[in-house]
Amino acid sequence: MITDDDRQTAALVLAKCAANDPWFPSGGESTVLAWAEVFYESHLSREDLLAGVARAYRISEEGFRPLAGSIVKHARAAYFEQLNALPDEQREELEATVEILQDIGVPPPDAHRAARRVALGRRPHFRLTDAQHAEFQRRMQQRKEIPKLTRRELDISHVARPVDEVT
After folding, report:
1. How far is it, in rounded angstroms, from Cα 34 to Cα 31?
2. How many CA atoms lie within 13 A of 95 on its CB side?
3. Strand residue runs (E) in 32-147
């Protein structure tokens, strides 16, 4: 069911397209509704869709004419580009967050989505109860107190020999 928030998101996306392209048509309420339906089905946030518009106009060739579906594709690509650009420390914290959220009862898809949103500087799409929040904070603090292990190469020379070595 398309909500007023979906319609507002579609209107903002269309406005951003028009801001980037002075010849972008103003389609009116029917266009807003059609784009809202596509955006609703994509399950992307407003921030993601607006980032998709920015990416679309940044990398597209002259004469680009966006459709709602192309904005969704660019939004997904921008989202994963941002995740891939996270430094290793932040990735490790993201993984720890997912693990802890699942341990305290958050379903895996929600835990992953919330952790990624927080890592990208956005608000999660749900709120923890006070008890869950306290438990989450306690576990994150425990993790921070665990000394970091340095990465080192695994020496397996005493276990296996190279394939081309003949004895």
Report:
1. 5
2. 7
3. none
What is the pLDDT, as a whole number, of residue 152?
67
Distance between start and end Cα atoms, the chain: 70
Q: HEC profile for 101-129?
A: HHHCCCCHHHHHHHHHHHHCCCCCCCCCC
List of long-range contacts for 143-150, beta carbons under 8 Å, 24+ apart: 143/96, 143/100
Q: Exposure pattern of 132-162 as b/e (b: 16+ CB <10 Å)?
A: eeebbeebeeeeeeeeeeeeeeeeeeeeeee
What class is the 4-84 domain?
mainly alpha
Please report the pLDDT score of residue 11 as a whole number.
96
CA distance 133 to 131: 5
Span 105-128, pLDDT tens digits: 999 999 999 999 999 988 888 899
Structure tokens at 144: 């921070």
Six-digit token pair at 100? Answer: 């802890």
Domain ranges of the chain: 4-84, 88-145
